[in-house]
Write a sequence for this structure.
C-alpha cells in the first residue's frame, strides 16, 4: 500500500511538472509574441504611415493648386472671347468700308488723301490693339484647307492643287492658341 501511495504521489508529481512546463512554455511563447509586438516599432510604423499620407495629401493639394491657377489664368486669358467676336464684326465692316474707299477711283485724288491716311492709321491701330490682346488673324490664301481653322463656303475650279485655299471671304482669328472664328474660304477643285 505504501508503494501504491508513493506511486500515486509520484504520478501526481509528474503530471504537475508536465502541466507546469506546458504553462511556462505558453508563457514564454506569449512573451515572445509580446517582444515581437514592440510598441516602439508599432509607433514607428504608424509615423511612417502618417508621413506617407501627409506627403500624398500635400502633393494632391499642390496639384489642385496648379489646376486652379491654370483655370484662373485661362479665365483671364479667354474671358474676353465673346467681346472679341463682337469687335471682329465691327472690324470686318470697317475693313469693307476702307476697301471701298481705297479701290474707288473717286477717292484717289488729293482731296481725300488725308481721309485715306486716317483710315490707314485706324486700320493699323485696330491690328495693334488685336495683337496686344492676343488676337491674331489666320493666314489662309494659298494654304491647304484645314477644317480646324477654315470653313469652306464653296469650291472653285483651279489649276492649284485640290483643297488649296483660293480666296478668303472672311478673315479667321485666333485668341492666343484658341480659335476665335474660322476663316470663311473658297477652296480649289480640279477642272
Amino acid at each position: 500500500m505504501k508503494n501504491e501511495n508513493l506511486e500515486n504521489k509520484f504520478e501526481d508529481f509528474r503530471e504537475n511538472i508536465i502541466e507546469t512546463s506546458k504553462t511556462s512554455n505558453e508563457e514564454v511563447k506569449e512573451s515572445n509574441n509580446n517582444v515581437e509586438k514592440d510598441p516602439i516599432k508599432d509607433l514607428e510604423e504608424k509615423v511612417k504611415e502618417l508621413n506617407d499620407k501627409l506627403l500624398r495629401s500635400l502633393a494632391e493639394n499642390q496639384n489642385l493648386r496648379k489646376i486652379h491657377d491654370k483655370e484662373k489664368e485661362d479665365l483671364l486669358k479667354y474671358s474676353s472671347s465673346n467681346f472679341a467676336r463682337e469687335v471682329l464684326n465691327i472690324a470686318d465692316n470697317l475693313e469693307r468700308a476702307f476697301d471701298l474707299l481705297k479701290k474707288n477711283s473717286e477717292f484717289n485724288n488729293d482731296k481725300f488723301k488725308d481721309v485715306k491716311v486716317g483710315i490707314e492709321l485706324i486700320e493699323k491701330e485696330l491690328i495693334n490693339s488685336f495683337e496686344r490682346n492676343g488676337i491674331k488673324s489666320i493666314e489662309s490664301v494659298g494654304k491647304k484647307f484645314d477644317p480646324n481653322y477654315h470653313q469652306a463656303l464653296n469650291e472653285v475650279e483651279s489649276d492649284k492643287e485640290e483643297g488649296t485655299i483660293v480666296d478668303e471671304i472672311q478673315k479667321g482669328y485666333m485668341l492666343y492658341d484658341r480659335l476665335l472664328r474660322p476663316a470663311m474660304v473658297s477652296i480649289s477643285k480640279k477642272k
User: Anything to note?
Assistant: The radius of gyration is 44 Å. Residues 39-78 form the longest helix (40 residues).
